[in-house]
Each structure stands twice: as C-alpha cells, then as structure tokens.
Amino acid sequence: MPAPKKSLAATALLTDLITGLWTTLRYTFKPNVTVRYPLERSVLHPNYRGILRVDDDLCIACFLCEKICPDNCIVLEGEKGIGKGSKYASYFYLDHARCLFCGLCEEVCPVDAIYHSNEFEGATYNRADLVHDLAILHKGHAIVHYER
Ligand code: SF4
Ligand code: SF4
Questions:
Q1: Contacts (Cβ under 8 Å, ≥6 apart) of 35
Q2: Which residue range or ranges hold the 4Fe-4S ferredoxin-type domain (predicted)?
Q3: CB contact set of 108 (below 8 Å; sequence gap of 6+)
Q4: What is the pTM of this model?
Q5: Domains of the chain with CATH codes
Q6: How far does residue 59's CA lie from ligand 1's centre (Å)?
Q7: 143: Cβ below 6 Å to ligand 1?
C-alpha cells in the first residue's frame, strides 16, 4: 500500500517533526505513570486474577473446580473426614502452566476455598515448578528473584 502523499507546505514546514516534539514536551512535565519494578510494585486491582491459592481447611473436596476447569488444570482426590458428611482434599494439584486464569474455579467453589491471589511473579526456569501441590497452594509459592 503506497504511503499517503504529503503536501509541499507540510514537508517544508516540518509539521511531522514539530508535532512529535510538541507531544514529547507535553509529557515531559507530567507525573510518571510507571513504577521502578521490581524495586516498586504497582497496587493491583482487587479483582486481579493472579496465581491461584487453595485454603485446604475450607475445601470439602466437592470436585466442582476440577469439573468446570476448561483446561483440566486441577486434579484432586477427596477422603472422608471425621464427622458425618465431612470430606477433605487429600490430594490436590494445580498446573499453572496450563491455567487460563479464567476465574471459573473460584466462581464455582461453594466455600471460597480456591481463589486468585494478587501474586503475579510466577516465572520459573522449569515448567514442572508450575505444578503446585496442596502445600504450595495453601502457603503460596516461593518467588524466584532473577539476577544478571
Ligand atoms: S482459572 Fe480457569 S483455567 Fe485456571 S484452574 Fe481455574 S478454571 Fe482452570
Ligand atoms: S470447588 Fe472448592 S471446595 Fe470444591 S474441590 Fe474445589 S476448592 Fe475444594
């Protein structure tokens, strides 16, 4: 597609250059909107969908999160606990490498046991580290600090 032709006056008066310089000048004196990550961290919206966590004290092993997950990230097993009708998750794995962060598991959980944290530093050198077991899902994962 050919570039639009500029008028001779626009070329002679350097209007593109002046427009660009004017834009730079206008933003030079405005406050910064960026933060010096990782020294500073932005305040995230409360609805931010970060790395998933599970409160195993609340989980009743109902399997709803496993069933609704569109990407089969969750695998769990339940066992009978003490008391009539009580169940708990004896085994719970969640693969964050497959997770779409869609929030469906959080939405469907009847006891708010699974939820998105506002943690976003989930990068690792190994994909296997993205599979979190119940202990990691409860406590949160260890953050890897990268150095040059
Ligand atoms: S956020 Fe979505 S994709 Fe990720 S585990 Fe939950 S249901 Fe599955
Ligand atoms: S939906 Fe909630 S209560 Fe049910 S198995 Fe998942 S985390 Fe546990």
A1: 41, 42
A2: 50-79, 90-119
A3: 64, 65, 68
A4: 0.79
A5: 52-139 (3.30.70.3270)
A6: 16
A7: no
Q: Which residue has the higher pLDDT, 136 or 8?
A: 136
Q: Whose CA is nearest to atom 1 of ligand 1?
A: 101
Closest among 53, 127, 47, 129 to 92, alpha carbons compared: 53
Q: Which atom of ligand 1 is nearest to the CA of 72?
A: 8
Q: How many CB atoms lie within 10 A of CB 8?
A: 8
- Cβ density class 115-126: b for 16+ within 10 Å, e for less: bbeeeeebeeee
Q: Which residues of 64-81 are buried (b: 16+ CB within 10 A; e: fewer)?
A: bbbeebeeebbebebeee
64: helix, coil or strand?
helix
Contact 52/94 with Cβ under 8 angstroms? yes
Residue 134, token pair as written in the block? 């119940």
Q: Does residue 69's CB lie within 6 angstroms of at least one atom of ligand 1?
A: yes
